[in-house]
Amino acid sequence: MRALRRLGRRWPAMRLVARALEVDRRLTLGYVACIVGGGALPPAFTVATGGLVAAVSRAGGADGDASRAWLAFGALGALYLIQRLLAPIQQDVGNALARRLDEALTEQLMTAMSAPPGLAHVEDPAMLDAIARAQGTLLGVSPGSAIFGLGWVWMQRLQGALALAIVGAWRWWAALALVAVYAPTYAATRWHWHHVTRVMYGRTEEMRRSYYLRKLALSPDIAKETRVFGLAGWLVERYRTGWLAVMREVWRLRREGWIIAVAVYALVAAAEAGVALIAARQAVSGELPVGDAVTLAGAIAAAAIVAFFHDLHFMVGAGFDALGKLDELERTTAERAGVTGGAASAGDLPRRTIRFEGVRFGYAGRDQPVFAALDLEIEAGRSLAIVGENGAGKTTLVKLLARLYDPQAGRITVDGIDLRDLAPAAWHRRVAAIFQDFVQFELSAEDNVGFGALHRRGDREALARAADQAGAGAVIGRLAAGWQTPLSRQVSGGIQLSGGEWQRLALARALFAVQAGAGVLVLDEPTAALDVRGEAEVYERFLELTRGVTTIVISHRFSTVRRADRIVVLEHGAVIEDGSHDALVAAGGRYAEMYALQAARFTDAAGGGSGSAGGGRDA
Amino acid sequence: MRDLLRGLGLMIRMSFAADAARSVAAVITAAGQEASVPFRAAGMKVLVDGMVAHDARRAAGGVAVIAGITALGRVFAWASLNVRMRLRENTQLHVDARLMALTAGIPGLEHHERPDYLDKVELVRSEREALANPFNPISWTLASIATAASAVVLLAGVHPLLAVLPVFALPSMLATIRAERADDDLRVEQAEAGRRLRHLLELTTEASAAKEIRIFGLAGELIGRRRALFDELERARVRRAVRSAALTSLGWAIFAAGYLGGVALALDLAVTGRATVGALVLVLALGSQLNQQLSEITGNLRWLIHTHRAVQRLFWLMDHATAARARIEPASPLPPPDRLVDGIALRGVSFRYPGSDAVVLDAIDLVLPAGSTVAIVGDNGAGKTTLVKLLCRFYEPTTGRITVDGVDLTRLPVDAWRARIAAGFQDFGRLQLRARESIGVGDVAQLDGGDGRVLAALDRAAAGDLPAALPHGLATQLGREFQGGVDLSLGQWQKVALGRAMMRTAPLLVILDEPTASLDAPTEHALFERFAGAARRAAAGSGAITVLISHRFSTVRMADLILVVAGGRIAEIGDHAALIRTGGLYAELYELQRRAYR
Question: What was the ipTM of the complex prediction?
Answer without folding.
Answer: 0.87
